[in-house]
Amino acid sequence: MPPFLFSHRSRRFLAVSVAACLGAAVLIWTLWPWLPMGKDSRPRTLVLYGFSILEPTITKTLFPAFREKWRAETGEDVELISSFAGSGTVTNQLIMGVPAEIAIFSTELDARRLLEAGVVSGETWKRLPHGGVINRTPFVIVTRPGNPKGIHDFSDLTKPGVGIIHPDPLTSGAANWSILAEYGAAMTRPGATPADGQALLLGIWRNVVSLAGSGRAARTQFDSGFGDVLITYEQDGLAQGSREGPAHELIYPRSTIMSEHTLVVIDRNITGEQQALIQAFIDFIWSEEGQRLFVACGFRSVNVSLNGYNPEFGEIQVPLLVSDFGGWNRAKQEIIDEVWKNKVLKEINR
Amino acid sequence: MNSELTYGKGMSRLLPAGFLVLVMLPLLLLPLASVFIYALKGGLGDFAAALITKDALFALRFSLLIALATAAVNTVLGAYAAYVLSKTRFPGREQLGIVLNLPVAIPNVVVGTSLLLLWGPIGLFGELLAPLGIQPMFTPIAVLLAHIFVTLPYMVGAVRPVLDDLETSYEEAAYTLGASRWQTFLHVVFPAMRGGLITGALLTFAHSLGEFGATVMVSGNLRLRTQTAPLYIYTQFESGNIATANAVAAVLAILSFLLFSIIIGMASRSRARRARS
Asked: CATH 3.40.190.10 region(s) of chain A?
């Protein structure tokens, strides 16, 4: 090899040119989709914000099925633009003005907050099928394999030494449902008084070792090995196969709440040409096909006759609905705020 | 050269470095290694498959694009700020310099929320822009604004010391020889700044690539629209897709390693040059 190749100067020249070529390659790759020749025809989009655990169900199952249907009917391609976080976080984002066309909340409470902030003009979700509720799922207890702490009901969670991973009621819908489930579990015992409900809440919350921002974040913490027990949606517990992480056991309490998830159409973000698409998506969600897909993904359908299709659903002796507590407005005021926030939390922080 | 020998000969010379590695092992090296271990757990095929999904590719491209734009804007803005702070005298100069450095210390989340409160629908500018149908938050513009805010101190920090060290006598000489202010800048000040500018641009680029706290507040975290690579990693990790999250994290780690190799290489070259002159 000629000796000049080894000279200090040409070696530097080589290094600089290699770096420059690499830089140029990265630059072209980065800009490619925005360059005229790299631009594929931009498909239509549907912008959806949803609560955390809904993500795989919507992005991997429900939306792809809708997309096929829409393509077959109109020949048009639709792309889903979506974001998932704790239900309360999603609500805050909507109030700050994210361009969502459809929002799906874990609890109707968050839909009401949108109403108070003026994002929607009225209780528009009530005009949708089933009052805007797209599906349900009971709250269950998840333990480590073999249930080493011997947990069989919410009352067992008060035992000393049980570390509970709980989502945070400030940002998570799942957390609000969990509190109703815990309180309700005590109240459905014969002869129970509100003091019993408060006592059970206090016992459970003394054992909470971590507050996670969303149901999904709580699950991730639990899967990373923290805590002995996780309180979560049955759907999230059943969906273990799709997640990496250690095996666990699902415990069905004697009594628990069936969460109901509310869909809200954000009318002010929907332009005229989008209306037909949004309506078609909403129709699909409550169609038998859409509801069957929810059941296949572990959610319980609002069309109760379809729930037999998923053999994994467990039995709950005393299922509760938020209507048993007088609706979300009352439940929020009387249980979440009055009992949990003003009494239980204060007692623990003392 | 001599300083390297003062530690002694043979094995004892490696002792300080060995101790440093030992200390850094649990702090930095093993956590970093676990990124690669988890990314490659399923083999190279899975690693590649995790990277070529539409979402991952978009997130990486979007991050690079934003980093590029941030570096471009801050090269001009940061250089100007450094020039003004270093070469002009005005009341409150020191205080302004401190304020410009604040983004390093305040949590990036606060940067994000403050941008939201200014430009969002209830904010001062937001209320003015809303009737015009302009909503900058939750768009790529919002991400760019946040990154400019957060990375500006790194640009100023890279350029200002160079200018402070540049003796005014050179500039005075240029003026005496009849050069205009602009000519002086172009032929005297700018060549001296060049090294600092490139270092600052690369630092800005690297910080923008990894920015999370402010981005998560202002981007809306929309896949295929405003989701940067760090947001994608976070979302994937939260969904339990640890391998996917780490595959993208590994790419970012490699990019950062390359960037900082260039930055450190340049810094030591310019130090050597200064020592020679």
From this structure: 44-135+261-304, 138-258+315-348
